[in-house]
Input
Amino acid sequence: MLAYLIRRLMAVVVMLVVIMLVVFCIFFLIPKWAGVDPATMYVGKQSDSAALEGIRQKLQLDQPIFVQLWEFFKGIFVGRTYSSGGDVTHCSIPCFGYSFRSEQAIWPVLTDRLPVTVSLAVGAAVLWVLLGVAAGVLSALKRGSVWDRGAMLVALSGVSLPIYFTGMIVMAIFDFGLGWIHSEYVPIGESVTGWFEGLLLPWFTLAFLYAAMYARITRATMLDVMGEDYIRTARAKGLKETKVIGKHAMRSTMTPILTMLGMDLGAMIGGAILTETTYSLPGLGQAVLKAIQERDLPVILGVVLITSLAVIIANLVVDVLYAVIDPRVRLA
Output
């Protein structure tokens, strides 16, 4: 198990380096190849020639590409100083960039909004896994029944309906109509109850979409697993059906579910833009949308990096869970 973990950690380090290289190329190198001056994408409100020259000096765009790459990597791990003549700006560790439009480092912006997005993603993930897997298992065990057809019809609706439409319908019914749940977000530091109530509708809205996909995948996988030889052997030995399903069938069924969960949860950390916009949640999704509208590239760069990191961490956790569920994975 230890050797397996070491191999996965080494793979994570390599993947992080590759992602940082790709992100650097997208935001700094490719614009040059396309004939676009990268300084024009980072300049603040003043875009005259003096401001552009100042940005070139601060970002060292006039230096060789390897120097720029080194400064980019170094900034994340030891911080970075942007200087242009007498104008000196320091970006503390970890420096995910500096917005010359808003004149602030990106990392504090991300950390202010990250708890909202993490709360939304984790809460919704718990709901969509519980509801989706349960619905999929029951549909597979009751194949062709009214429950099976009804659950798959609801799942198809969940996949088909856009989040902003579902969110508005849910708010219209439970918030504005019945008044049972208020969807206004309250920071957890102010009120735990208000925080929970403010995220309840966004959780169910986001979970409805993903639970539908998980139900369909779980049903298909469970139907395949239930026809395997080792399931028939377990039944022939006289094991109880609950043990056959819970101990044997579910182990194989959970493998694709964990794979999906690692990707989906990691991507959600990057910001559920539609959900956060529908419910006016001050998360990373809102920050990205605002940055796109204002062409604030450093914010977008920072969110891309933190999303990539979240996906890598989520998949590392999934790899560890693989090894727990199926010991044969450790030999891979």
Remarks:
- The first helix runs from residue 2 to 33.
- DSSP finds 13 helices and four strands in the chain.
